[in-house]
Amino acid sequence: MISFKQLPLEAKAAVAAGVVFFSMMLSRSYLAEQLELRTRRWLLRLQMALFANALMLIGSLHVWRSTVTTFSKSSAASSFCFMPWKIAVFMFLALAHSSFFTLLFLVAEEPYLFSLAAYTCLGAYIILIFFLFTLGSVEQAYKFLAGRGAKAGTGNKNSRTAMKPVLAVMLTVVLTVVGLLNASRPPTVNSVEVPVHKLPSTMNNLKVVLLSDIHLGPTVGKTKLAMIVRMVKALKPDITVIVGDLTDSEAEIIRPAVEPLGELNSPLGTYFVTGNHEYYTSDVSNWFELLKSFNIRPLHNENVKIVSPKSTDDWFCLAGVDDIEADVLRYSGHGMDLKKALRDCSSEHAIVLLAHQPIAAKWALQERPDINLILSGHTHGGQMFPLNAGAYFLNPFFVGLYKVGQNTFVYVSPGTMYFGIPMRLGSRAEITEIILHSP
């Protein structure tokens, strides 16, 4: 029987990831009610960081072998550039691995340079892994189809082996720069007109501004939030809604960065529902209190009547549900409860629902097909290549406007900022201006 010491490094990393994952499940199932909230908060975040790093270690070993070990066997190893290159690759991998720990130690009013560098390396790491795997797969497919596996000369083989990591690194550098530049631009304002069945005629052309996935934390701070608030105010919305993932940190730590939200002054109110990242902070109650101090109302499985300024008899139901991740994390007193959220919301009036994840939107429509409009986020439009494909296949609604049935629409925001990695490839940050039309 093979002992743990005899396992290859990749297998050891996989075992470590499995152990950490098991400890996470154990903590959620048996320790959630026994641990103090602050202790549980730190344990969950530490476990997630360790789990991500254990998985990344498998990829990092492949990166090191592809970009360093490969060249150590060639004439390039004697070059004066080889040692600086080894140090650069090591620092790159170290920064990428450290990114997850910045959530624990480096969150403030404005992002630290170290956090920005670490998450940039994480983004480049994902792209590099993709290209190394893809180019390697293409190379193997070519060998198989050409039937030249063992017949190639040693010189040509070494040359082709060296070309693969060089090309992968070059593509990674180019796409990283493009992604950084794209993410540094202000969010685009996307205006969408949505017909809402049973919306009173006095509320025709009502303007709702949708924000989602701002992710205040290691790489998004007060300056970017202030820019978003200025853009929202310029649109002069009747209602502003924030559909989750506003933050990645505790309210007390990042409170100064949230202050610009107090400038939102939509006449019919500003509303908020939780996303999965709010529950990762384990600080939802404090976030609710902080948002209330800025006149932002959390919709915690509840609803409000949005009354027409022109007639008190005309109104529609605006409801919000907790994110479904609250159930997975066994977060006490929270979890998606559609019946409670839509209490007193009858099909006689228009119903607009705020639900962070598109899968929650799908479940809501299965239970209440009379909902007229659901506003979601969560997917980030994939945020960056090559994650776009995964986000597309894992969500029933990916990004943009969808018509479901005769009188129902779902709009999924691609996100107003980004999570961690300050890059966007194949997607664009957005502030959505939704114009409601009565039929």
UniProtKB/TrEMBL annotation:
Q: Which InterPro entries would you find in this protein's record?
A: Calcineurin-like_PHP, Metallo-depent_PP-like, Metallophosphoesterase_sf
Question: Which residues are in the Calcineurin-like phosphoesterase domain?
Answer: 206-381
Q: Which UniProt keywords apply?
A: Membrane, Transmembrane, Transmembrane helix
Q: Check the record and name the Pfam families matching this protein.
A: Metallophos (PF00149)
What PANTHER family has UniProt attached to this entry? TRANSMEMBRANE PROTEIN WITH METALLOPHOSPHOESTERASE DOMAIN, TRANSMEMBRANE PROTEIN WITH METALLOPHOSPHOESTERASE DOMAIN-RELATED
Any transmembrane segments, and where? Answer: 12-30, 42-64, 85-106, 112-135, 166-183
Q: What is this protein called?
A: TMPPE metallophosphoesterase
| GO molecular function list | hydrolase activity
Q: Which organism is it from?
A: Balaeniceps rex (Shoebill)
